[in-house]
Amino acid sequence: MKIAVVPGDGIGKEVVPAVLPALEYLGEAYQLGLEYEIFTWGADEWLDTGIGLPAGAIDLLSSEYHSVFLGALGDPRIPDMVHGRDILLGMRKGLDLYVNYRPITLPSGVIDLYRENTQGLYVGIGGTVARAGTVDVAIDECVYTRETVEKFVRFCLGQLRDKGRRKVTLVHKSNAVPNTGGLWQDVFRRELRNFPELTGSEEYVDSFCYNLVRDATPYEGILASNLFGDIISDIGAALMGGLGLASSASICPETGFALFEPVHGSAPDIAGKGIANPYAAAMSLALMLDHFGHSQAAERFRSCVIEASRGDAATPDLGGQGTTGRFMDQVVALLKRGTDNRTS
Q1: Residue whose C-alpha is closest to residue 122's, from 93, 95, 96, 94
Q2: What global pTM score does this model have?
């Protein structure tokens, strides 16, 4: 399996190099047959060349690689994030990564959040009307096709069933946005008939967010459109303890290609200080191992990351006194200890 590694910007250029030694060790210890290549797409390259995602990049990724591991995108020198949209949205749309999976890990268990990843308000259709240099009218269109909603809902329901989930909640806002909201409701209800193992419910997004914060225990699986899923994922990260703990996977079920990235962003306020938390990046790599079918290695990796996060080597945001590198050095040490015990 070939992995395209894109450290990106800010703390992405710190957490990605920190976690790669763990990936290398796991690859050797479990004979996973993984290899990776690093790409320098990001703000520095954009500022030098004006290019975010190079011509032919999508064809290269789809033909020669099986996944992307992305650190983060965002740089204060490019305040409109045009390079980030070009790279990240370009890969999402160009590789048809229409399923975004963001596990919300809480003391009560894991909530599986699935977000549609390519349509809705993120299709880029709209514009502005300006007068005397001032924008008077701004329009962004929310667009969904039945084909995309159907294949998204069908895949996610299948995933939840296979994981042994019993409850799934559709989050929408059909009372105020009846056209796209109604489409989501219709597809959800029709597809749910094919999954008798699952009990479905529906909630308006504002009510759902309130309920999630108040008491997350009733939820097992969540399906949401692009914008709503984006917002819910950050609420979920806050419930977990912060953005530094949240991982994600963007998947095209038909091809198997996937992109894995921590949710925390480039965090320019702490970039270069050596204290960026690599937890989310590591957990995103664990999702990648799961995706490739290496569940034993993924589970071992997760347990070591969690153990390291509870000790002195953890970064300050977790109550430790460690650096980014020290945190992952401790993870690798725990991996080696466990592997030695397993093979002795």
Answers
A1: 93
A2: 0.93
